[in-house]
Write a structure and sequence with these properties.
CATH architecture of the largest domain: 6 Propeller
Strand order of the largest sheet: 26-32-31-28-29
CATH topology of the largest domain: Neuraminidase
Number of helices: 1
Largest sheet: 5 strands, mixed
CATH superfamily of the largest domain: Fucose-specific lectin
Helix content: under 10%
Shape: rod-shaped
Radius of gyration: 47 Å
CATH class of the largest domain: Mainly Beta
Oligomer: single chain
Strand content: over 45%
Number of domains: 4
Amino acid sequence: MGTHLAAFYSPDDDLEHALQLVSLPSIGPTAFLVSDTTFSPAGQGNRKLLDTLAAPTYEAVVALSGVYSPLDGLRYAFVATSNNQIYATAYKQDSTKPEFGPVLVYDTPFPSYPPHSIVDIAAFFSSDSDPALDNQIYIAVLMANGDLWAIFGTHDVIGSWTAIGLLFAHAPQGKNICAYYSPQDQERHMLIATDHDITHVHFTSHSTQQEALAHFDETILAISGFYTPDDQMQHSITATTDGSAYHVQEIVFQLGIQIPPTTLLGTVNFTLLDIGAYVKPDAGRHVIMVGTTGNPYPNDTQLYLSWYYPGWQGFAYGPWPTLPPWYPKILDFEASPTNAAGYAEISAGDSVTLSWQVASFGAQDTKVWLIGWRYNPEGDYWRKDDLPLIGNLSVTPPVQTLYSLWTNTPSLGGTSDMRNLWVFFKPGPAQAKIVYFTAAPNDGYINLGTAATLSWQITDSQADTKASLQGRVGLGGSGAVVLNLANVSLQGSQSVTPGEDTRYTLTVTDSRGQVSQAKWVTVYAPPTPPPGSVFYFKMTNAQSQITPCFTLAIYAKDKETAKAMAEQQNGGYKAESIDASQFMTACG
């Protein structure tokens, strides 16, 4: 379908599509985006740029085609390149982000052909009842030597589609091709145009036939074709010129029926470059045309809509509704280095290189700037203005950072494009850990004047890991320091004899940070008794048959007080003072 235009209709959103290649001279002479310009009676005209290049920039694009697939609801843009490769990009309704692509539909389908052998391609969907060919996307390929190929497959096997050469068909000097499927004869059809002739090739899984379809005295500029289910006819739509005027002509035919004469659909008042034709469910026949404007890039072409219905004498046409301007677009925004998952990842203190490509589409006032949103509690941000359309910048973020690349063109109203990119930090080595920090005996409860043993173990250490031990008294362990060991072993013990409750803290420090753990040693001091002596008594009670006599020691200030306490505590007994030596024998 040439390099200027590829047209198709998508029934799920009732849109007419005009695919075009948009050159990116600031990127390189072979860099192109695919533009999808759409129309519907309800929404009028709209335009979007797919978010990826049509093909790798080192390959020149020689042909463009597009199709809607009812199998997956995707729109497909196909481009052929000068090294005989065909790339596919698929995207959803209302999306500029491709589902996939650009990817090769077939690895090397034409290894024996020299470069620049593909002249043109045409894509269509086939719903044939033949199980070998049913419900697949086809790409008809016209080669410079006149060979014809069919490549077909579905999205789930993209990259390994089937490629077959039509052995009994040949179209030398062909310059344009269109293709479609006809349910009426269950065959796939190709129309190939030279400067003045159209050849018709049709094939099934087991046969290929070829015949001349038409001759034009005028020069053929482009060709398109489709099948109409309302009358089961095939339509060849041809753009021609006699050198002064531009015409769109139609041939309506069916296999086995004598080829009818050519009908003039209309003469247009602009320089016609290319056409694309299709039928809609309401039986309306539509021809999209593209012509020159004489304006500078990227507004050097103009799209036109045309339509007609059965019984009409010619078509009606008019310029495509007003489209939005070519706002700037970010083509690429990347960081290096990246990890295995493709994300930018650096160690603390390292740098990362941000690179970008922005298309301004000829505007002279397009602005580009970067903002870095730092992932910290303060929410700091960094900004760099007045960047070039294509460039790179080395940055050393202090923390994990989200970088946003922005662009706009003030003369076009300031509509912006933006892309985000995270720069992540690699996780550092594991922090040193205190496995245990204990006090013995009795978990640190000791009597006054006795010793306690502090023990500890530290793991995940590194060369600069150091441990210290400190003891403090007072409320909450915040008072005076009573022990200060600035450097202790990573596994060891320490004996301490505190005079009061003391909080001991083990602290581990290295380049990764600091951890600590505390342990209390609690001191128990018995109360001091009042002044006095121990007095010994023989306690007797003649009335008791069980314990008539026992001995007792009482601590008191004097003997009389001790005797009174002994008799008070043991009612009915009489206390008799004895010596300590009699304590064990006084009761016999």
